[in-house]
Amino acid sequence: MFQRQTPTPTPPLLVMRGIDKSFGGSPALRGAEFTLGRGEVHALIGQNGAGKSTLIKVLTGYHRRDAGLVEFDGQPFEVHSPHAAQAAGISTIYQEINLVGLRSVAENICLGREPRRFGLLDWRAMHAEARRLLGRFSIDVDVRRPLGSLPTATQQMVAIARAIGFKAKLVIMDEPTSSLDDREVEVLFDVIRQIRADGVSVVFVSHKLDELYAVCDRVTIMRDGTTVRSGPMSEIGKLELVATMLGRELTAVARQGATAFGAKAAHAAGEVLAVDQLAAGPRVRDVSLAVGAGEIVGMAGLLGAGRTETVRVVFGADPAAGGSMRYGGQPFRPTEPADAIARGIGFCTEDRKIEGIVPELSVRENLTLALLPHLTKAGIVDEAEQRRIVERFIQRLGVKCQSPEQPIRELSGGNQQKVLLARWLCMNPKLLILDEPTRGIDVGAKAEIQALIGELAKDGLAVLMVSSEVEEIIEGSDRAYVLRDGQTVAELTGQDLNETELLAAMAHGAHDSREYGHG
Amino acid sequence: AQELPKLEPKDSYKVGFAQTESNNPWRIAQTKSMQDEAQKRGWQLVYTDAAGSAAKQVADVNSMIAQGVDAIFLAPREEKPLIPAVMAAKRAGIPVILLDRSVDPSLAEAGRDYVTFIGSDFIEEGRRAGEWLAQTTGGKAKIIELQGTTGSSPANDRAKGFADAIQAHPEMEVVASQSGDFARDKGRQVAETLLQAHPDATAIYAHNDEMAVGAIAAVEAAGKVPGKDITIVSIDGTRDALQAIIDGKLGATVECSPFFGPVAYDTLVKYANGETIPPKIINEDRFFDASNAQELIAEAY
Amino acid sequence: MTTSLTSRTPLLVLVGRYGVIAALLLLILFGWARYDNFLGSYNILSFLRYTSMFALVALGMAFVIMSGGIDLSVGAVAAMSSVVAALASPYGLIPGLLAGAAAGLVAGILNGILITRLNIVPFIATLATMLAAGGTGLLLAGNQSVSVSYDTAFVELGQGDLLGFPVPAWIAAIAYVLGSIILNLTAFGRSVLAVGGSEDASRMMGLPADRVKFLVYAGSGLLAGLAGVILAAQFGAGQPIEGVGWELFAIAAVVVGGTLLTGGKGSVESTLAGALLLGLIFNILNFENGLGWISLSAYWQSVIRGLFLLLVVILQAKLVGRDATG
Amino acid sequence: MADASIARPAAPARTSDGLGQLLARHGALVGLVLLVLFNLAFTPNFVSWQTLNVNLTQVAAIVIVAVGMTLVIATGGIDLSVGSLMAISGALAPLILLGQILPMPHPLLAVALAFVLPVLVAGAFGWFNGFLITRYRIQPIVATLVLFIAGRGIAQVVTNGNLQVFRNPEFQVIGLGRLFGIPVQVILMLILVAGAAWMLRRTLFGRQILAVGGNEQAARLAGIPVASVKRRVYLISGLCAGLAGLVVIAINSASDANLIGLGMELDAIAAVAVGGTLLAGGRASITGTLLGALIIQLVRYTLLANGVPDSAALVAKAGLIVLAVWLQQGRKST
Ligand SMILES: Nc1ncnc2c1ncn2[C@@H]1O[C@H](COP(=O)(O)OP(=O)(O)OP(=O)(O)O)[C@@H](O)[C@H]1O
Ligand SMILES: Nc1ncnc2c1ncn2[C@@H]1O[C@H](COP(=O)(O)OP(=O)(O)OP(=O)(O)O)[C@@H](O)[C@H]1O
Ligand SMILES: [Mg+2]
Ligand SMILES: [Mg+2]
Fold first, then answer.
1. Do C239 and B78 make contact, defined as CB atoms within 8 angstroms?
2. Least CB-CB distance to A359: which of D6, D221, D334?
3. Nearest chain A Cα distance for residue C109, angstroms
4. What's the CA gap between D184 and D175, in Å, rounded?
5. pTM, full prediction
6. Residue numbers of the domain that contains C144
7. How far apart are CA C285 and CA C197, in angstroms?
8. What residue's CA is closest to ligand 1, atom 4?
9. Which residue minimizes the CA distance to atom 1 of ligand 1?
10. Would you call B55 helix, strand, or coil by DSSP?
11. What ipTM was predicted for this assembly?
12. What is the pLDDT of residues D197-230, one digit of tens each?
């Protein structure tokens, strides 16, 4: 399935071959390949969890690779710390903004390469340098201000300025635009074109496809930790790009068996949740949606579209800034997750590690974490009852673990995910919110979970499912909303809910799909 | 070496009292005595508390010098580190009188650097305790010694005096000697442990009454009878100790009087009047045992 | 990961930045108005001579805390170093100085290794070093203060004067000037703050976080060693049982100085102000006793110090708002 | 964030290696056994009920405090104020017994109050710690440092620093009494240990403690009231300290605000650390803490009984703590 390499004109700047990397047994990279020419802007794309960031972190020595070889600038390349990589001429903007909010803009830009006079810091030079770099982005801020006091977009620009600032041969940008608006993106592209002109190579990771066509010369597509295609940007159409990324042939839009969702549920009984013009934080600007009992509502969008934030607000984990919500007919404004849980809402978070499991605790305790108050009489947990429930759900979801007493951190990601799902199912909730329910999960487990979600809906459960996987949305959900830059840009039902429409809406916002307006 | 600072006679002085710490009954009684007596005479007293830090005590003395006191009563935390305080006062022309503990004689001398030392003779105390024990046990005893705070001069001297006393008696030996920090609780715990490790012990010598009282509890906890199976002797003369003597649990205790007020101020007056002051003024300390505890307990603190 | 400081009102910012210095001046004014000779040269000089030891320890602690850590061992290390210095003092001023400083440095390096190599949390690591240093000091000293040699110039380090100022004050002053330069004018200083601000981000930005932390603890040990040298020289004895509670004094001074306990933000100057401020409270209480009011003031001192710390910490928490959590 | 552990070069996955596992899990037990063996070999008259008795009565106070400390640390916090809180309750009890606060109509009422009030006061101060930590988001180390400094001062001011001597058999049962020949404070200690262990395993509160310590974000998203859990934990720590204070003064039939519980916080924390509770929170073992405390006590006993001076004891203690805590690292790096 591996495509032939179109030869790069000059000897390549960077060659990565057969890169393996696994985290605690679960592979993130399996023989990944990457070749980068000099003075070329190279798009690196793939689904969430495809391994892009890992590939980058392996290159910069943040992770040690398990196998494979790397050549940079003609030499074998062995670095064991981002420090060394930077010294070797690779400067990186990691996916999550990695700056120190308490320190000033100038310090963040110059950290690690501070200008000196007589061995001492030269603050004037440092500030001048910072202003100069930010100037290229036509940004004008007081560089002495603490970075944390600036809006996320500006912080992102600072991160980019920092990376450009190093006289680097290669600049890597992992999702640099996820928090930038169009104008800022344009500025960024100008800068990228400038440094390309100086012969600097750029690796550009993004989920926003049209951006890629705007700046990138070549593209490498990753899926499940391997490189599935690489070639000139111009040779690959957008839909083809997405298809390769998702590993599906567009020509055959026959969808049987691609996912394990059952037949579509009957039509929505009564409204469970209604969200109207919700605004929250920097990422959610204007989201409206509704979920009825017994239906699965999909929520599609590219990374950074604001889906996670939206559902966090619905669950009371983050405060809403504007708009209104109704739940079960009544006005609804939870201030703590506990409120939402008490009202019968469950929320499977996107980020298992940070927001899901309690690693040291056993499967049993993790599974019943939210249910515990109901299992308790006079403060004492009814363990018999607890065991019964745990056994039942381990059974029903086919969780693979030695025993319910096994610490959850020893389970595979997929089984961890099942336990977290069970954590909410055992509450038998009215509304279940799933954020990327099948991300980073092996195919088998994925199918089981999808099937389960289907059954649940049949039993009358309302499901709101955030997913970056197109099939999941199309085949899993009765209706789907598409978010883009924190706005609901489309609602797709019935015939409209097909791959073309969805991709179009995700890529360009409301396309020929029925405009979703409020009013 | 230049002469001692003079002090001209007045009927009221502003004097400083640099206390070491206030974390045990003896110290608190001493402070009270100094304060009460000053009040009685209508003198102004600048009181500082070094909270157990020799360094802070020096700083305290310096702040007294800064405040221009007429004289300083110093109860040195330790022998060596307080030398700078004594010298500073001398340079500032302020006479110093040492209370209850002295400073390193090789570095500062009574009559030259400070007026005099008023207090008990710790070595003597240890000796008297030792002799009493020798007498009551007929020169036969296996002794557990509960030492004071490691490094403090009373601990060192009381150990020395006691050792001198029992030297004459070949059948008296110290089987174990550990620090109980002059504190009741620590003394108790150490005594419990040592009694356990040395069941053959017949006597306990505690460097102060607080530890002795703790030791009594330990002996009883070990199922032995204090005063019968184990003879206990200590130093200070606190009310608790005298009560214990009356109860027959404590053998005897050598008085180490904390009531410094009167003698201290009298000495200062004498010095101001140009009388010659001896380099050492030793309180004649009493000796409490079954014979006199009952009648003297009223005076104890 | 990034912090939002927008909630701060300018006034609070000012208080946070200059509060200590203001408080210091107020306290001095108060003392000058209330007591005779409070600002007399004698009191000032002896105050500086004594407080410089604590100032040195606080400086090291400031860097440790700015890097997001904590060092409980400084007091015990200073005591141990004072013994070592006293033992070396017969060989002269320089040997005594170097020996004491080296002893402190070794303890600091031990902390650094425990924390960066064995990944032991700073609290436990430095607690262990505190016990070990205390014990070592007593062992070296044979359980009692070790007299320094008055034959050599060693005592000058504590009791001498230079251009009318106490030598310890000079040492502290130099240390603080260097400290300020290191923090504000060297890349290392910036790295310390960056690591304290976010260790993970610093690693991502290519900073050698472990090396930075190691150096910070080594430095704290070195300064504690210097304090120990002054302790020995100023009081003519190495004192194994001194230094009790110094670590708390230092932590308090740093906090009062407005340095964030979560690391990432701090100032050398206001740490000095904090140390002087806390020291001054003792001095003032002594003068207050001179007026013959408070009785067993040692007890009140702890209460007052505690309340003072509480006040400052709450104020700080309000300044930083939600970000005060680690 | 998730990468933090991976970024650390010195975080080996020692979870796999068997011996490390064993030591990490049962390090404390192994250590205790070795210590006992050593004593059997070298310490004179070690084998006797009295030895057991002495060590248990002496360790009781530490264990009682360490139980509360374990819960605090299980939530990822720390409590430096326990020693001072012991002093406060220890100073209050005699004042009540001797009717110096308010005249006592009935002696038994006095005894009852002397048991209850001081512990409650200590608990209140403990709750205050939790309040500072949750309301102002102050780091536990600093929040509890406040009372570490001020607490003892308060106790001293209340008593003017005077030693309070008292004789009151009813009250002193807690320190001197025996039930079936077992010292009351030892029984108390065992009850607390059993109770806390049971609470941690079987009750809602126990699970919430571990969840909060193990992953605060996840706990919140599972509907656990994080703040209130933390406050209750510090409250409990305060109550335990208060109780320990009473035990200490009862044994000595005297209360000395200057000395009660001096340095206890370090002993307790050390006991917890040695017992194998993660200082990062999330995994706690009460029985481990009991073992840890016994180890520290037995080390002290061993050194004393064999005439080793305090100085060496300190160094030994330090090495012990580092070793024990280092053994936990393997499990922590996941
Ligand atoms: N530190 C880590 N520990 C364990 N697993 C990890 C870690 N980092 C990444 N992974 C796993 O490796 C796989 C690839 O992750 P990676 O972040 O490279 O994906 P990605 O292509 O960058 O996705 P995204 O588009 O969401 O950034 C995922 O399954 C992820 O769960
Ligand atoms: N409040 C939050 N707490 C923790 N992580 C968050 C939070 N909000 C967003 N994230 C993370 O930031 C990334 C972007 O999330 P965002 O909600 O902006 O986009 P999204 O539509 O959820 O994209 P995706 O779900 O594909 O990541 C996600 O990986 C999400 O896990
Ligand atoms: Mg990524
Ligand atoms: Mg998301």
1. yes
2. D334
3. 23
4. 7
5. 0.82
6. 2-325
7. 38
8. A23
9. D3
10. helix
11. 0.79
12. 999 988 999 999 999 999 988 999 999 999 999 9
